Structure formats: structure tokens, C-alpha cells
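Shape matters. As here.
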Amino acid sequence: MSVTSVTVTCPAGQITGEPHLFRSIPYAHAESFADACKLEPGTIDARTAAERLHLTVATPEARFGADFPVIVFIHGGSYEAGTRFDPRTAPEFFVERGFVVVLVDYRLGVEGFVRFHDDEPNHYRGIDDCGLALEWVQKNIEFFGGDPTNVTLIGQSAGAGIALWLARLDHYKGAFRRLVALSPGFPRQPFQARKGALRRSLGKPITRTALAKMNPEKLAKGYARFRRRFFNDLALGPFPYDPAEMAELDFIISATRDEMYNHPVGKRLDQRGFGLGLIMRLLGIKNIRPYLAAARSIDNRVVGRAIGDAMIRRFVAQTEKGWWIEFPGRHCEDLIWIFREDSQAHHIIADFARGKKPFWPLYDPTTRQALSLVEGNPVVVRDPLRMVREAF
């Protein structure tokens, strides 16, 4: 007779789920635009799908002391969208290979990433949510079969930005041993430079009280107006990213070869074929002529490539340490290879999450060696992001 449910008793309470999947476990509570707080232990039915400050635990066996390595994944979505239920990051493939996988939700958009005058420096509610989820993992994951001393934090896109932010010296609490940042992105300006634009778009002062009182539909429409002003950038998110402020821990950082190649605005501008100098300056590219020459040596889609370089690859190029990977393809395509396929990319990340050091050299600003999967088989290459590094 098959077992359809199982209950785990842990510091968070009594949690009922399916034998290998606890779909929705609340890890914190927050009032609108307030900092989140921890929950008291309770009786939780984790078999249904719920969002907002919930996490999913998938496990080979919910048995205390099983000591499976743990992967905690933070989804992307430009700091304003996304979900832990993204089918591209379904946990089953990793679970079948002996990992406990935790997928985390966090507050998005205005509620998660707008800063108020009394916020602590470098703190964002959406990122602090993820920090509380990691604390939950430390206290409870052993009861689900995971090893709390062997946690790898993986983030993609905005989730990678959050993961890198949690590795800052002023945020890092030892809740994860190693880090994988897949195509990290950050805004190119601080929120303070955009606060006036958001105020005009919402028609409200940017205070906790005013925003909490707004009709959710009007808030969403106002944010959409604000968002359109930053079509070639992330409208919100942590700023500024400085890899020198990271704690010392093992990490892999990566980008895809053609990140935002199919960006709709980039497509239209590439079809027009003029005004490239102005577009490059708007994207923050300083050395325009060498960049355009390098981009054209690849193909004629220079604006789409430049948007990806400005939004994603420049931050990888800025991180002159850790182990680097360059994947083929476009933004998010690496998720399928890592989470869903028996690929070279999956094995590299799985081995790293088990504690195995990568087989290629650490990136160093003198030798600039990285692993390239662009042609399929792994090859150690030199300075793969040179055109990006020199452009910005």
C-alpha cells in the first residue's frame, strides 16, 4: 500500500506533505511593506500550492540524519516577477540524484525592493526574506533528510543578484557553504535616483503608509508605467554590486553567450540599424567603437547583444574571482541544462554542490581563465568576456 502523505516534526512544527515533496511551507510573515518576522511553530499542511513567503522542500527521504547535500534555489524575474514553481527548475532531477532541494519565494517589485528613508543601509525586504528562508533551512532541513552544514545557494538572474548580496560581509551568516550565481543582474542606478520617477508614476509619496494604503491594481498599473522608463535595465534591485564586499567562500559565477539576444527592443533597434552610438551610451558602454567592432565580428545583432552585456555579463566581468563558466544560448536556457537534463552543466553544478572543487582554474585577473561550454564540450578558455570588460 503506497504512502500518500508523511508528517515531519521539526522546530517549525508538524508539517505534512507528500513522501518526497512538501509543496508550500510558510517560513515567515510580513505586513505590507514591513520587515518580515519569523513564525511560531505550528501545524502545517504543505500539500497545496501557496505563494508569498513560502518555500518548497523536495527530498529523497524525509528522514532525520540522512545527511543529503542541500541546494537552496532563488528564482529570477527582474526583481519583480517569477515563481518557485517554474517548471524549468523542477527539483525532481536533483532529488533523484540524492539532493534535498529547497525552492524559495520572496517579495517582489515595490514591496520587496523599494527603499524607504528609515531602511538600514544595503538591506532590501525581498533579500531579507531569502535570508529568513536560509535560517529556516538551518533549523529544520535536517528533519527532512538534509545536511545543514552542506548547503549550496543557487540563484539565477535576479535570484543570482540576491545570492551574491547575501554573500556580502554585512549579510553573510554562514547559512550556506558555497554559492552558484547564474547570470546575475543588478540595476545600473540606485533607487534614490529613480524615486522621483516612481512617485510620479504612482501619484503617491514613497512611504510605507502611503503605499500600503494603495489599491493593489492601481499600484500595479503605476509600477508598470514606472517600469517602462527602464526598458533596457532592471527598474529595481540592490545597488551597487561590489564583489570586493563578498565574504570568502567558494562560488561559481556564469553567463550565457547571448544573454538578451532576443530582447524585443533590441530586435527593433537592430532592424533600424542607426543611432548605435546613442544607444551604446544609454547602455553605459564607454569604449563604443572597439565594442561595436567586437560585436560585429560575432554577428549583426549588436543592440541585443549590448543589452545582455549591460544587464548581465558586465557584472560577471566585474567579478574577478571564483570559478567562471560561459554557457551557450540565451538568458534562462542554462536552467534546463542544469535542472532537467543529464548534461555536462548539470554534472558540474551537482559535483560542486556535493563539495567537489571545479576542475578548471579559479578566475584570476592576470590569467583570466574560465570554462566555456559554448561549443558543447568543456574547454578552458582565456578572457571570454574581454569585449565586455573593456566596454564598461
User: Anything to note?
Assistant: The first strand starts at residue 6 and ends at 10. The CA atoms of residues 317 and 389 lie 6 Å apart. DSSP finds 14 helices and 13 strands in the chain.
